[in-house]
Amino acid sequence: MSRTSRLLTLLQVLRARSRPATAAALAQELEISERTVYRDIAELTALGAPIQGEAGIGYVLRSGLFLPPLMLDADEAEAIMLGLQYVTQRGDDVLGKAACGALAKISAVLGPAAQEALRNPTVLAGPAGYGFPENIVPLSVLRQAIGQQTKLYIDYADANQVPSQRLIWPLALGFLNEVRVIVAWCELRNDYRTFRTDRIAAACEQGERYPGRRSDLLRGWHAACERMQRVQPFTPDKN
């Protein structure tokens, strides 16, 4: 994490707390040393951040650090809330934590009407359900390969538990109600395929970027789905 990112993250952590936080607690949450926390607190205070407190007692961000209000109406605020609730239910631990952080950042700069919509929403995401099948390969590994546009060699088992080895170009993750899938170009099939993430027994990055742009490949996948008139384009691979 860069120094600027660390300072902004520390501000956000303080903004989300209503009670003083000790340097030890902040250091643990940010995964930095207490000495770094003290140094960052001093730097933020020198820059004008209204941080009050002292070592051994804790720090709190008082009113006085203002950001321009985010121009969202009540309906837009509720749409964001509904989407973030969906992520906390269906995403992994990393995405769930990111959704909570995003909500804290958004709520801190909303106008009064949108703030009220967040506190008392008229829409709810519903129960979390029964959970997803356990993944052997963490979703973070798949997301990293997608973001870096690198080929993945995977050990996969289809619906009939028939194993196969695939070299894929990972394009996106899909979150269904009961399973998660990865959309990819499969070199074995020379076509687009979707694979259930819980059926991937192992995944190894090849250190090689796949050709073309991910955005173009995704458009190709959407076009292929439309041509085949698929009702559910996220159908996991069965062959």
Automatic annotation (TrEMBL):
Gene3D superfamilies: Winged helix-like DNA-binding domain superfamily/Winged helix DNA-binding domain. Transmembrane segments: none annotated. Pfam families: HTH_11, WYL. InterPro entries: CBASS_pafABC_assoc_protein, HTH_11, WH-like_DNA-bd_sf, WH_DNA-bd_sf, WYL_dom. Residues 139-203 form the WYL domain. Residues 6-59 form the Helix-turn-helix type domain. PANTHER family: PROTEIN PAFB, PTHR34580. This is YafY family transcriptional regulator. It comes from Pseudomonas vanderleydeniana.
